[in-house]
Amino acid sequence: MIERSRTTVLHLIDSLPREGAEMVIYDLVQRGDREEFDFLVCALTRGGGVARMLEEIGGPVFILGRDSFLDRKAFRRLLGIVRDRRVDVIQTHLFSSHLWGWAAGLRFPRVRLLRTEHNMSEWKNPLRRGLDYLLSFRTDSFVAVSGPVRQSLITRCRIDPEKVRVIPNGLNTGRLRPAADPEAILTELGLPGEAKLVVTAAALTPKKGHRYLVEAAELLVRDRDDVFFLLLGEGELRGELEGMIRDRGLSGRVILLGSRPDAVEIIGRSDLFVLSSTREGLPISLLEAMALKRPVVATAVGGCPDLISDGENGILVPPRDAGRLAAAIGKVLEGGEPARALGEAAAETVLAGYGMEKMIAAYQEIYRRPRRPPANGEEQ
Prior knowledge:
This protein is α/β, with parallel strands linked by helices. It has 15 helices and 13 strands.
């Protein structure tokens, strides 16, 4: 039988690529108090870079291999994990995992449900907003990664404000290591030494707005032959973006790098970090870029305006506006003291207000809340 002296927390998420929400899970497991808590991680569909990182630090990782939303075999595996590992808290991290965590919670009423909301709710259709409202009655606590995300849950999904707490994503400064050879990425890609690198790091999904970044790149390369755009991340739109880059004559100027273990080093080598999202929570990649003293251009969505004061520690532009995005990137690429000052101010903002230990302490406070009383006939 599992020793009951520690609280068992199960992180549940769709998959485990090396992306924002997944890296939050990694940090909570790696830096969490292992004497007080047992941490488990379960991916509904597949593993990825973060799954491998978790295995390296000895974190139990379960991959259900779900092949459809109603995959009964995968759901039974999830129930078995909750039962056999005597899970106390299920922490869910994206819409599909919220639904499966809620369903597991119905089978195990003693388990507390904690939902971390990483994104705004404006994109959700009435059915999804209605489901969020219904699921909230069984969900014990909500965490929003920014104030706008919290407000979105309350106003769009009618979640009880008393249940929703803001815990901003924290930055793991241990990952901000300098590259052994800062010019290695130029050599690898065959780029000239004077190349100006504009880097983004985001999943290749519609909400990240890559199409507007490609359109902005087309405007910029007309007048500059020293600017190159490096897109870090994988996702469903890779094929579409490859075609867009090819059709606009941007091959070799806009480069899809995929998911890379040296992503932070590439960001650190950039002349500018850009985020072109149409909706956001509080992206880890943006925090990392700012901490690395990179000047940043980001769309004014989600938690980005909480983090960036336009013209002081970064530049904000409207979403879905390639022209404004291109103009802001061009302005920063002029370099000099203004760009350096933006980077310095960005680092001061992040290092002062978005520490990893603060995030972990806030989550662990929630984990410590009393267990639900067992249902009739359920084991203690």
